[in-house]
Amino acid sequence: MRALPLRRQALRLPAAVLAAVALALGLLLGLAPHFERATAPPEAPAPGYTASHPLLFYDARLFAAAEAATAAAPVQPMPGARALLAPHHWVGGAFITTPLRDLAASRRVTRVILLGPNHTNAGGAAVLTSDLSWETPFGLAEADRQAVAALTAGGLVRSEPDVLTYEHSVAGIVPAVRRYLPGATVVPLALRSGLSPADIERLAAALAKSCDFGTDRDGSG
Fold first, then answer.
1. Which of 30, 60, 118, 143 places its Cα 20 to 30 Å from the Cα of 152?
2. Domain coordinates of the chain in residue numbers?
3. For 16-49, how does the pLDDT look when each residue is reduced to its tens digit (9 = 90+)?
4. Which residues fall within 8 angstroms of residue 145, CB to CB, at 6 or more apart?
5. Per-residue CA distances from 112 to 27, 103, 148, 207 (Å)
């Protein structure tokens, strides 16, 4: 398959279109992952400890290279931006860090809905999520538990943290979200291949209720 050009875009589209585009992009990008990964599952949490997703997909060298490329590029404001399309493999890390940097400079973001493909189609539902927080080198990325609970109440989305822990399309991006949008909570979603148009519409309608677009840095909507 011919490699597709990786290019980030700031979008102002309806929720249904965003969900469909995000799903299509995730399914089309098929490069091999480049990460330092733990070789054994994490130990069970001690009693009284609130479990979180361990840091399994993070390569400090690739992340540093991406940040260096981002720092060398001028900030491009994104007034009115509603969504970002980005790869989930860090061989093209600047395509992740640069738009996040620019978004942070443009808008006050309080919640990130992170969509990625479920590469193995694991789990028992078409769309999987988790209400656990995420360990990152930049501190804990908190899950938006209220938004996750609202999504799982509809039946299409199921909370399966064990699957999300090992899905790099989501787990590999969370550290960058925490680095550039430290005040934002995370709603992680892993989507199976073969989602029907009806399922995509259902998901988009559910996500629309969780979207909080915030305001531009200049105070506009």
1. 30
2. 10-30+53-213
3. 334 333 433 333 333 333 333 443 444 444 444 4
4. 131
5. 20, 12, 12, 11
The percentage of residues in the chain with a pLDDT greater than 90, rounded to a whole number, is: 57
Record the pTM.
0.74
For residue 98, give Cα distances in angstroms to 73, 74, 177, 184, 214: 8, 9, 11, 17, 20
d(CA 131, CA 52): 9
Residue 83: beta bridge partners?
Answer: 11
Average pLDDT over residues 195-206: 90
Show the CA angle centred on residue 23, arms to residues 17 and 176, nearest 5°. Answer: 105
Residue 165 has pLDDT above 50, yes or no: yes
Q: For the domain bounded by 10-30+53-213, which CATH number is listed?
A: 3.40.830.10
